[in-house]
Write a structure and sequence with these properties.
Order of helices and strands: HHHHHEHHEHEHEHEEHEHHEEHEEH
CATH architecture of the largest domain: 3-Layer(aba) Sandwich
Distance between the termini: 61 Å
Mean pLDDT: 93
Helix content: 40-55%
Low-confidence stretches: 474-478
Largest sheet: 7 strands, mixed
Oligomer: single chain
Number of helices: 15
CATH topology of the largest domain: Aspartate Aminotransferase, domain 2
Length: 478
Amino acid sequence: MLTNETFRNQAHQVVDWIADYLENIQQYPVKPSIAPGALRAALPDEAPQSGEAMDDIWKDFLNMIVPGITHWQHPGFMALFPSNASYPGILGEIAVSGLGINAMMWDTSPSATELEQTVMEWLRKATGLPDGMLGVIHDTASMSTLTAIISARERYAQFQVNQHGFHGYDKLVMYCTDQTHYSIEKGAKAAGIGAAQVKKIATDDAHAMIATALTKQIAEDKAAGLQPFMVVATLGTTSTLAFDPLEGIGNICVEHKLWLHVDAAYAGSAFFLNEYRHFLQGIDHADSYVFNAHKWLFTNFDCSCYFVKDANHLINTFSANPDYLKRTEESVAMFKDWGIPLGRRFRALKLWFVLRNYGISGIQELLRKHIDIATNFRNQLLSDTQWELMAPPVMNMFCVRYHPQGINDNEALNALNTALLKSINADGNYYLSGTIVKGMYMIRVVMGQTHLEQVHAEGLLALMRSSANSINDFKALR
């Protein structure tokens, strides 16, 4: 086992490797090309009976684990919304690991609670959220959404479902669109609402919710004896980065007394920039709101920032106080009562490190840099008329497809672009993803990785053009 002295030596080795890894990350293919089960086959079937030397463990990490890693911090990782790390974020994680605390309540570490309150207020102000909204840090937007669904359920049922089950509340329905993240439906399952009771509202040509369609569906459901209780609006959908019309949806929620949850998991970081605050018009109607600092705010996974208009709904829904967890100070926040988990990581520390080290202006500068790189790339790609834009481009993400002259059959175009994406990803220097919206296959490009530079966009542009030129046998794809 490690002693304090050997721990010091090993820790220096690990930190040096991390620094080298991030500095030279482009030597790795973004996505590994190992066969399924290869690592499992190489590992022993049972844990060792006797302890092993850290040097041996570290060698196995380098030789066995690293070859099977998808490198999310690679600047060519543009497939999914990023899970960005940064140097201050890493240092914050190291410090948290060393402290080894459980931040469930003020008594178990006063600094953890009060720092979390402080950084969440910093974020509220920095991103233009309404006065009075209070924040808490969860692990992911999925957990934040589940927290919102349960809170909305209990407000509608006057906390009776928590106490007595669904008796009298077995016809609850909630609303989103078919572009909403799948975690909404998953959360509805976990909250006992049921996937079938998540109604998908029609979207317009920009893939955003049609407010009049929402009004019509609510009226039909009420007439059928159902119990509407919640709407989920998205600011920046996963497939196309579409923005639901928050003002119109919010007015409908006020009229029908529905909980409005706003999912801005990725795009919420962009509200550090005044030029995107117009998407927040109507946010004063929101009962809850989430964005992930671990996506485009350069804070190591996991760190989901969840805000609520009235924290009492959280506390009344999730509070449980056995004798061994009674508070010693009545005036302090008890974040264990602000969500589902009892145990909580000290996530606020890494967020504090990031916000202080970058500063508001540093974050704004990096966000604008990513947006400028993406905009210039998109303009250059679309200068070739065989590439077409598939959704309104916003910020640093866009969807395109290759559409050569003479091919107008949608199935053929879908097959062509599926093959094209596979060719691009096979290069190893870039990793893009595809999506299907309204039957059309498109290639998603997300340029928001911490270490992204103009040279990486130039490399992708050359690769996409050469890959498109190499796919000539269109007939075989029909």
